[in-house]
Design brief:
Layout (H helix, E strand, L loop, with lengths): L11 H8 L8 E8 L24 E8 L2 E11 L3 E13 L18 E12 L21 E9 L11 E3 L3 H8 L10 E11 L9 E11 L2 E16 L7 E4 L3 H7 L5 H13 L4 E2 L4 H4 L4 H12 L20 E4 L13 H18 L4 E7 L7 H12 L10 E3 L13 E4 L7 H7 L3 E5 L17 H12 L3 E4 L43 E2 L15 E2 L2 H23 L1 H8 L22 H16 L1
Length: 617
């Protein structure tokens, strides 16, 4: 099979005949490729992209992008029902056709000439779908497939053997295992199965690597024997993707969670591990450190300042990659209301505390958007209390008057004078948004809620986290707030509050006293160590990514392409392109309606290519 790649659509019998020259019955029966905008389930035998898609013509992979952009694609290895042993992939670094210079060669991780990162995809079985509550409005807006073995955790190639590290064994199908064990579970016929491999290709940051076409090779091996080789073409275009993000993903994740799973790390090391992982995906982790949870402390804020001015994200501090030198653009004062009852509980103390925060930001980080997180998801009964507490700050005769007040609620006229920044769970009040911006206020959206914007559940389409950046551009929304990324311990409000989750095997991640819902909710990162369930330990002092995390990054990069293209042809032309894929969202969509935006990655890539053409031509 060396030198050839067999699409899944080809008959398994014919493939086995081709392989008969070397083995009697090979286990790998096909290999194909697809971009980052699809989820290929483990037992998906009829995926519409397998014969041809936006990056795959049936024989080769073709990519194009800008300097400082990260391109991602998937290699899907198909095994028969008996599985396969010792399977892995490798990539011959692409070489420039004229100069002979290679991408991702000769430099350290995240080097100036690019980087290639390889991962295996781990599958989580969903038997009970997420119910239509917060994550989607009704069955009409639900994802197309909500049960099965769904890929999400991405395991680095150097993880522990048997835990996703290379090479790995593809086990027999569930049907085959049931047959051997003579169990009674009814499982559909599974003639073949998929093992996905994920590739991140970081294009060069340094223009010493010339623009043009680079050619390499993707190689697939089984038990040390090469069974497929696929040509990889990468076109490096002569423009640069900005390090700065012009739209924000504010992700709450806690340093304490990381520290629990990596007890050998200091608090500073744990925070760096978390923030570096997020920043490389163009996401800012905000709210999970002491500086966000405690009353004003000058020493805490001076220690936190490098994250705000960007000096923490530099090679001198060990950071290389996207967003180098760029600081965080937001800061929460009292995350989830943590200081509201401690120091914001009287007129005098609230004014004194707000003065301290405003003075510090005026003198140290004047361009950062900061705000007091007064209360989380308030109900109507709390409106008088909110007006009273916000009034203490807004009537402050000192500088603290300028401390904005935030809550996780859609714009509510009764609180118009009390709240400055809003984040609505079911979207944004599009009529109020321009008025709020004129007043120096703002309105963002919160978590995920189909069909108005992409969901965050495990069953969501791959493009769900990506589409949110497109919707932000479409409506001029600055920020997407995501409540949690390291929800590795059960939520404290529920009966399992003190237990750690089996995030690699159990899809249900939100369990309360009266509600069990939300497969994958709160999980964007996965722990590279698992001290509580050693059989799931990947053996890596690293925070692992996910298919959802990678699509958040893809959306953030798309936004930057829109920003660059707008400077060439104007916003109206960019909107015209976007609306061919995302015609509307947010309040313009009824909550019980079907999803109006495309759920296929190729459609987004088609517009992305048109944006690239505008930028370079």
């Amino acid at each position: 099979m060396s030198g050839k790649c067999f699409p899944q659509a080809v008959s398994v019998v014919l493939i086995l005949l081709v392989l008969s020259f070397s083995v009697l019955a090979a286990s790998v029966v096909g290999v194909w490729a697809v971009g980052d905008g699809e989820k290929v389930f483990r037992y998906d035998q009829q995926h519409p992209s397998q014969e041809q898609n936006g990056i795959w013509d049936g024989r080769s992979i073709s990519l194009r992008g800008l300097y400082n952009e990260v391109l991602a694609f998937q290699v899907i290895v198909v095994a028969d029902s008996l599985g396969a042993e010792g399977v892995d992939i490798s990539i011959d670094p692409p070489v420039h056709q004229s100069s002979g210079v290679a991408l991702a060669a000769g430099g350290p991780l995240y080097g100036p000439g690019g980087t290639i990162e390889l991962f295996s995809q781990h599958y989580i079985r969903v038997r009970r779908p997420t119910e239509p509550l917060w994550f989607y409005g009704s069955k009409a807006s639900a994802p197309a497939r909500m049960t099965g073995w769904i890929p999400d955790p991405l395991i680095p190639a150097d993880a522990r053997a048997g835990r996703g590290g290379f090479p790995l064994d593809i086990p027999p199908t569930a049907e085959e295992i049931n047959r051997r064990q003579n169990t009674l579970e009814v499982i559909p016929r599974q003639a073949t199965q998929n093992q996905g491999f994920w590739v991140d290709l970081h294009l060069p940051r340094d223009r010493r690597w010339p623009a043009g076409v680079y050619t390499g090779m993707v190689r697939v091996r089984e038990s040390g024997r090469e069974v497929a080789s696929i040509r990889l073409n990468v076109e490096l275009l002569p423009e640069y993707l900005p390090d700065e993000n012009h739209s924000n993903i504010w992700l709450f994740s806690t340093v304490s969670a990381v520290k629990t799973y990596f007890p050998e790390l200091t608090d500073e090391e744990a925070e760096k591990l978390l923030k570096f992982t997020a920043h490389r995906h163009r996401i800012d982790v905000i709210g999970g450190s002491d500086a966000h949870r405690n009353p004003f402390d000058e020493a805490d804020m001076d220690s936190y300042k490098p994250w705000l001015d960007g000096s923490a994200y530099t090679p001198a501090n060990g950071y290389n990659g996207p967003g180098q030198g760029q600081g965080e653009k937001m800061f929460t004062v009292g995350m989830y209301g943590s200081i509201t009852g401690r120091v914001m509980n009287s007129r005098e103390s609230a004014r004194l505390e707000s003065d301290k925060w405003v003075n510090w930001f005026d003198n140290n980080a004047p361009d950062v958007t900061y705000f007091w997180y007064m209360i989380d998801e308030p109900g109507e009964v709390q409106f008088p209390w909110i007006r009273e507490h916000a009034g203490w700050v807004h009537s402050n005769p000192g500088p603290g008057k300028r401390l904005p007040v935030f809550t996780t609620r859609k714009y509510t006229p009764e609180l118009d004078q009390a709240i400055d920044y809003w984040a609505g769970y079911d979207g944004v009040d599009l009529e109020a948004l321009p008025k709020l911006k004129r007043q120096g206020k703002n309105h963002w959206f919160y978590n995920g809620s189909r069909p108005r914007y992409g969901s965050v559940i495990l069953e969501a389409e791959a493009v769900d986290p990506r589409v949110n950046a497109w919707i932000k551009y479409l409506y001029g929304v600055d920020t997407w707030f995501l409540w949690e990324g390291t929800h590795w311990q059960h939520n404290s409000q529920g009966p399992k509050g003190k237990l750690h989750q089996r995030v690699f095997t159990e899809p249900l991640t939100f369990i309360g006293w009266s509600m069990n819902f939300g497969n994958g909710d709160g999980i964007v990162f996965y722990p590279g160590r698992m001290p509580f369930y050693p059989e799931e330990d990947r053996g890596l002092t690293r925070i692992l990514g996910s298919v959802r995390l990678k699509n958040m990054r893809r959306g953030q990069q798309d936004y930057e392409l829109m920003w660059l293209a707008e400077r060439k042809v104007g916003r109206d032309k960019v909107l015209e392109l976007i609306k061919t894929v995302v015609p509307r969202g947010l309040e313009e969509v009824d909550k019980d309606a079907p999803v109006p935006w495309s759920q296929r990655g190729d459609d987004y890539d088609r517009v992305r290519n048109a944006l690239l053409d505008i930028i370079v031509k």
